[in-house]
Amino acid sequence: MHDQIQLGLNYFPLEISKQLSQSVLTTDRFVLIGRKEHPLITGEESFENAAQLDIATLVIPNWNEHKAYVVNSLKSLNKECRMRLRSSYLDVILNSIQRTDMLFPCSESLANTLGSDFQKLLLPDDVIQPGGEIGLVVASKNRRTPLIKWLKECTQEAAAEIKTYNLSQ
Q1: Beta strands 52-58; 8-11: pairing state
Q2: Any idea what DSSP says for residue 103?
Q3: Cis ω for the linkage preceding 130 (within 30 of 0)
Q4: Tens digits of residue pLDDT in 60-115
Q5: Nearest-angstrom CA–CA distance, 31 and 97
Q6: How far out from the chain centre does Cα 40 lie?
Q7: Cα separation of 78 and 73, whole Å?
Q8: How far apart are CA 150 and CA 146, in angstroms?
Q9: Interatomic CA distance for residues 136 and 22, integer angstroms
Q10: Is 148 in contact with 6 (CB distance < 8 Å)?
Q11: Nearest CA to 106 among 153, 61, 55?
Q12: Structure pTM?
């Protein structure tokens, strides 16, 4: 079982052991995702006039377990954000936002793969977003092996494709 995992992906930087090496794979920005009939997405309500936002967040280990980055950013715009749901299961969040007016802050790369049941809402330009760097983590002892070099290349190609891919188009 030892040495079976060759590569990991997560937001960058992580607090990790010196036995692991991390590098930036790609960058991304955050957006809000809601059901396609959400009042902010249909234009029935404007983001500027929305005083309160109900938020669902995906808990990502070693990144946002103790801090709601995007929620704090939205509060800087005088938006009251009520944390309605925190889960480490993406399907729980997606099922919930599909049936409510909750919004889900997530990476645009993820948003682009969700399909036509969901729509993204771009954050206003003046929202200070958390760092959108996505890191690639490998064992330090293996970082120069042909296998890891090949896996990194494949992962970089996939990350570049995901940035431009959109299932809802």
Answers
A1: unpaired
A2: B
A3: no
A4: 776 666 677 777 777 777 778 888 999 999 999 999 999 999 999 888 888 888 88
A5: 14
A6: 20
A7: 9
A8: 6
A9: 5
A10: yes
A11: 55
A12: 0.73
| Pair of tokens at residue 116 | 């036509």
Query: What tokens were used for 33?
Result: 């995702």
Distance between CA atoms of residues 59 and 95, nearest Å? 16
DSSP of 132-156 = -EEEEEEEGGGTTSHHHHHHHHHHH
Q: 3-class SS at 162?
A: helix
Count CB neighbours of 72 within 10 A. 12
| Contact (Cβ atoms closer than 8 angstroms) between residue 112 and residue 65 | no
Q: Residue 139 and residue 21: Cα distance in Å, rounded?
A: 6
- Beta strand pairing status for 80-87 and 52-58? parallel
